[in-house]
Amino acid sequence: MSLLSLQNVIKKFGGLTAVNDVSFTVDEQSVVGLIGPNGAGKTTVFNLITGNYAPLSGTVTFRGQVINGQKPYKIVQQGIARTFQNIRLFQQMSLLENVLAGRHCRMHAGLFASMFCLPWQQREEKSAVERAMQELAFVGLDAGYDNEAGNLSYGNQRLLEIARALATDPKLIILDEPAGGMNDQETAALTELIAAIQKRGITVLLIEHDMNLVMNICQKLVVLEYGAKIAEGTPEEIKSNPKVIEAYLGTSDDE
Ligand SMILES: Nc1ncnc2c1ncn2[C@@H]1O[C@H](COP(=O)(O)OP(=O)(O)OP(=O)(O)O)[C@@H](O)[C@H]1O
């Protein structure tokens, strides 16, 4: 059954059609890759799913509900979390505080409860810290939980973003170029981490330029070019699709 579905989605920036009548589905507990050359519209599609943009037309359906037009925080509450191509962490805050920031969308305490340190609020805070530490351990960053996020390597900052997204309790996690800036060893570890996320029952949608990673981990690929979907299928099907070869290499002709 599909968890997420885009139907005929269009997004324009002035005269530029960044996403042109795109439709695809993401099955529950699958890993799906959205690929395509630079400027193909991949990040714009992500922004349409997460509520950062509203489509000009078309629908985005998540767990049977149309979600387009809703505010990003509402979409997070419904179970979609994301990471960003340009890392967006609180650089001066600790690793733990960054992950706790993700957890806050699941907490109930308001100003009143916090000011008066009500017992249920303290319990909620304690369990949020425990959960944040679990997510840090899951991505392998728990040892340095008190360090400043800004001191982490680029690759580890990407892992911290994943931990923060996981702390929101997502059904779907959307990763925008998770291997960007990672070395081969870090990318191999990321591949295992994505498999572990899937094992937890969380569906993964990712944009990635590292074709090895995409081919290894994804059950389905959706290919965009100039805002339009040009192909969809298993990694094997996509590898040998002439339209895809042409989009990436400029020609499908071997000669
Ligand atoms: N906020 C914006 N305002 C105007 N044009 C935009 C905006 N965001 C994206 N675009 C344009 O829309 C097109 C699609 O951009 P998008 O970032 O979605 O592509 P992409 O496939 O994610 O590219 P990359 O792989 O380089 O990140 C590009 O031509 C881009 O310049």
Automatic annotation (TrEMBL):
One of its GO terms (cellular component) is plasma membrane. SMART domains: AAA. It holds the Pfam family BCA_ABC_TP_C. GO terms for molecular function: ATP binding; ATP hydrolysis activity; L-isoleucine transmembrane transporter activity; L-phenylalanine transmembrane transporter activity; L-valine transmembrane transporter activity. Keywords: ATP-binding, Nucleotide-binding, Transport. One of its GO terms (biological process) is L-alanine transport. The keyword Methyltransferase does not apply. Signal peptide: none annotated. The keyword Endoplasmic reticulum does not apply. Residues 4-251 form the ABC transporter domain. Belongs to the ABC transporter superfamily. This is Branched-chain amino acid transport system ATP-binding protein. It comes from Pseudochelatococcus contaminans.
